[in-house]
Amino acid sequence: MNEQQMQLTLLARLEPGCLGPDGLSHIAAFCALAQRSVQALAPGVCQWRLEPRLDKTLPELEFSIANRQLSREQADRYLELFDLEIDSLEERFHTKMAQLINQFLARQG
Question: What is the three-class DSSP state of 15?
Fold first, then answer.
C-alpha cells in the first residue's frame, strides 16, 4: 500500500441548505472548491473528500482507510498515533467550513 492509501479519509457531506435557498444549485461546485482548502487540515495524515449531502440517511461524516470503513472511535485511535484528536480535527474542519461558506455567501450577495 502506498502512503496515500494509509491515510485516514474523511468523507464529509455538506448540506445544500448551508449555502442559502439556492444552495442545491451551488453545492457540488462549492464542495470541489472547498476540498482544496481543507486538505491543509492534517496533511500527510488525512485526506478529505467533500460531497453534497443529498441523502439524509447517510451520515455527515464517515471515516475510512484504504476503502475500509472505520468507526469514529477507530478513527480517533488512528489519529492518536499522530498526536491528533478527532474532536479537535472536526472543530478545525467546521471552523474552516464556516469561513468558506461565509465567503461564498458574501460573493453571492
Answer: coil
